[in-house]
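Journal club prep, notes for RB
We'll compare a predicted complex against what the paper describes. Inputs for the S-adenosylmethionine case:
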Amino acid sequence: MPNASTGNITCMTGRVIPLIDVRTTLLPPRMPGELLAHGEVADRLGRPLRDLRISVTDRCNFRCTYCMPKAVFDSNYRFMRHADLLTFEEIAQLTRSFVRHGVEKIRLTGGEPLLRKDLHKLIAMLAPIKTHDGVELDIALTTNASVLARKAAQLASAGLKRITVSLDALDDTIFRRMNDVDFPVRDVLSGIDAAAAAGLSPIKINMVVKRGVNEHEVVPMARHFRGSGHIVRFIEYMDVGTSNGWRMDEVVPSAEVVQRIAADFALEPIGANYPGEVAERWRYRDGQGEIGVISSVSHAFCRDCTRARLSTEGKLYLCLFANHGHDLRALLRGNGLPASSADRQIDSTIAHIWSGRADRYSEQRSEATVTTPKVEMSYIGG
Ligand code: SAM
Ligand code: SF4
Ligand code: SF4
C-alpha cells in the first residue's frame, strides 16, 4: 500500500520500497534545457543526450513471462510488417543525426535483435560513424543469446564492441519456465562462451529477479560467474508495458539481492564507470570480479538519464515508460527533400523534442502510474 505522505510502497512482506530517490530530490535542479557545445542539447532537467537504444525488431523467439507473456503475444498478435521497419540505411541516417546531438553510445535491442536478418551489416554501417570528438561509437547489443553461438564472431568483426546477454536462471527448469519456450540454459552459456572467444568481453549478463520465481537463483548466478570476467547485473522487475501484470510485491529490491550475495561472498561498493551509469557496482573483496544491481524501482536514477529510444518503426521515445513516440520515419520517408535538407530537418526536430523532455517516470512511480498505458518493452527495447 502507498503511504500518503511519502509515496513509498509497503509490499506484502512488510518491506518499504522508497519510490523517490531522496538523494536527488534534495539536490538543486540543474540548468534547464540549454544548448551545449557542438550542437548538443540538454533537456528541461539539464540532461544531455548521450545514449541511443535502437530496437531493430519487435519480434522474439522467447516469451519471457515478464516481457512477452504468451497470453498476449500469441498467434493472433500483430507484429509489425517488414515494410514498416526502419531500413538499415534509415537507422544509420538517424544515428548520424543523434550523434551530431551528442550521442556516444548505441545499443541494439528489440525484441530479439539477432532475429533481424543480416544485423551484422547494420553494425558495419554504424561502426565508421564518429562522435564530434572523432571517437568511435560505443556499439553494444542486448540479446537472449539463442543464436549467439553462431553469430558472435561475425558481429564482432562487423564492429560490435560489447554484448549483454539476458539469463534469468542457471537452473534449467526455472529458465525454461521463464522463457516459456522451453529454451535450455546450456545454449545460452554456449552463446556467452562464443562471445568471449570473439573478444566481446567483459560480457554483461542481465538477470531480471522476480519474487517467487527466481530469487533463489541470485546466489547460484553470482557464484557461477564469479571469477569469469563476466559481470552479472541483477535487475529489479519493472512495470514496463501493460501486459506483464506487474505487482510491487513481485519486485525483489536490489538491497536484498546484495544482501543475499554478501552472505556468501564479501562485497564492497565501487564507483560508477561514468556519470549516468545505470547499474550500481559492487566488487568481491577477494578480487574475483564485480556484480551490478539495477534498481529502477527501489532507487530511481532518472536524474542522470541520458537515454533516448528509437522504436523499430522509427519513433523516438524519451523514456522507457512513455506512452507515445515522435515519428521520425515520417520525416525520412515523407518529406521528398534532398538528403541535406532532410538531415537539417531531422536535426532540428530531434533538438526540439529532446530540449522539451522532462520525463522521470521512475521517480514519480506510484500505484496510480502502474496502470497507465505504456509502450511494451519488446517494441521499444530494454
Ligand atoms: N531480447 C533481448 C534480451 O532479452 O536480451 C533484448 C530485448 S529485452 C526487452 C532487453 C532487456 O530487458 C532484457 O535484459 C530483459 O531481461 C529486460 N526486461 C524485459 N522486461 C523486463 C521487465 N519487466 N523488468 C525488467 N527488465 C525487463
Ligand atoms: Fe524476448 Fe528479450 Fe522480451 Fe525475453 S526479454 S521476451 S528474450 S524481448
Ligand atoms: Fe530514464 Fe524514464 Fe527510466 Fe527515468 S524512468 S531512468 S527517465 S527511462
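Talking point for the session: The longest strand covers residues 138-143.
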